[in-house]
Amino acid sequence: MTRGPTLPAHPYPSARVAIPALPEQTRTPPPATAVEGFNTAPADEVHSTLLGCLRSVHWARRIAAHRPYPDLDSLLAAADEAAYDLAPADLTAALAAESLPPLPEGTYTAAHTALSAAHAAYEARFGHVFVISLSDTTPNEALDRILEGIRSRLTNDPEEERLVAWEELRRLARGRLISSLRGAGLCRSAAPPRGATSPNGAAPGN
How far is CA 203 from CA 76, 99, 137, 142, 174, in A? Predict the structure, then answer.
C-alpha cells in the first residue's frame, strides 16, 4: 500500500468495523478473584457488563443466570456456548450494535481511503458491519489485517459470511469479557442501535 501523509485520528466517513482491545490487553488472564467478583456482583451490573461485551439480551441473560462459575475457563466456555446458540435475530441485533472506534493517531491517508472503500463494499454486499477479532494481531498489523479480511470475505456468499461474522462476534465477546474481568473497565462494544442507551454508559469502542 502506498503511504501518504498522515491525518489526525478520526472515524471512517462511510463505514464501520468493530475492533477489540489491543492484543496485549487480553493476553494476561484475569485473577481468580475477578471471577468471584463476577459471581457475586449485582445482577443488573453483570447484565450491563455482558451487554457491553456482546449486544444480545439472550446471551447476557443466559450467562448471568448460570452463575456462580467455579473458574475462568468455565465462564468463558459458557460465554462461547451461549454465543453459538444465538438465534438469527440475536445475531442481527448484535451486528447492528457494532461500530467503529476512532482510528489510531498517525493513520495514513491511503489507509483511510482504502478501508472506507472496502467497508462500503462489504456493507453493500452483506447489509451489516464488518466485524473481526484481532486478538492474535499486533497493533501495527491491525489495519492491514482488517483490509485483507474484508477483501477475502467479500468473496463469501451471504450465508457463509453470516457464519464467519458469527464466529468473529463470539471471539470479540470473549476478548471483551476477559478485558472486563482484568479490571480494564466494563466491556465496550460499539454504540447501541439508534434510540437505545448504552447499558454501562461507556463510550463506543473496543
Answer: 24, 11, 24, 21, 19
HSE-CB at 157 with a 13 A cutoff on CA atoms is 2
Give me the domains of the chain, ranges plus CATH numbers.
19-181 (1.10.3330.10)
pLDDT tens-digit profile of 153-171? 999 999 999 999 999 999 9
Cell numbers 475457563 label which residue? 73
- Model-level pTM? 0.73
| Helix 43-53 vs helix 158-181: crossing angle, to nearest 10 | 130
Give the chain as a DSSP string: -----B------SS--EE--S-GGGTSSPPPHHHHHHHHHS-HHHHHHHHHHHS--HHHHHHHHHT---SSHHHHHHHHHHHHHT--HHHHHHHHHT--PPPPPTT-BHHHHHHHHHHHHHHHHHHSS-EE---TTS-GGGHHHHHHHHHHHHTTS-HHHHHHHHHHHHHHHHHHHHHHHHTTS-S---SPPSTT---TT-PPS--
State CA 42 to chain mean position distance: 24
Encode pLDDT of 118-149 as tens digits.
889 999 999 998 999 988 887 778 888 888 99
Report the distance separating Cα 120 and Cα 74, nearest Å. Answer: 39
